[in-house]
Amino acid sequence: MPKSDRVRLQHMLDAAREALSFVREKTREDLDQDRLLVLALVKAIEIIGEAAYQVSSETRSQIPEVPWEDIIGMRHRLVHAYFDIDLDILWSTVQNDLPPLIAVLESVLQKGVE
Predict the structure, then answer these.
(1) Which of 16, 44, 49, 54 has the fewest CB atoms below 10 angstroms from its CB?
(2) Annotated active-site residue in 11, 60, 75, 76
(3) Residue 28: its pLDDT value, please?
(4) Residue 66 gets which letter from DSSP?
């Protein structure tokens, strides 16, 4: 795996971990009341998506457990339709999609991909 891909995967992992730390001890209702939390989560997911976009297609094909297109598509949606973010989807993404992504990225980065 090229060093640049390894760096991008680490960026994805770091941003996913940060997003989960932001919601620790928070509820979905907190998202409606806390604009700072919304912006923090959006930024973390944007970083995950941008880093995913920069990972080479060769490396992406070696890690099929990562839903690359979904991640990149969500990043595009957040950036280009920032005025129309569905907070239920944002919350669900952080709660349901990031933990398995973290597990895959941790595994890949620990063992490496050839």
Answers:
(1) 54
(2) 75
(3) 97
(4) S
- Containing structural domain, residue 89: 3-111
Q: For residue 45, what is the enclosing H or E element?
A: helix 35-54
Catalytic residue among 8, 11, 76, 80: 80
- Tokens at residue 46, please? 């944007």
Residue 2 has a pLDDT of 86
Tell me whether residue 75 is one of the annotated catalytic residues: yes
Q: CA 82 to CA 74: how far, in whole Å?
A: 11
Phi and psi at 63, nearest 5°, equal: -130, 70
φ, ψ of residue 94 in degrees (nearest 5)? -65, -45
The pTM for the full model equals: 0.92
Q: How many domains would you assign to the chain? A: 1
List of residues 6+ apart from 5 with CB closer than 8 A: 55, 56, 59
Classify the phi-psi angles of 25: left when phi > 0, otherwise alpha if psi is within -120 to 50, otherwise beta.
Answer: left
The stretches in the chain having pLDDT less than 70 are: 112-114
Location of structure tokens 């940060």 = 18
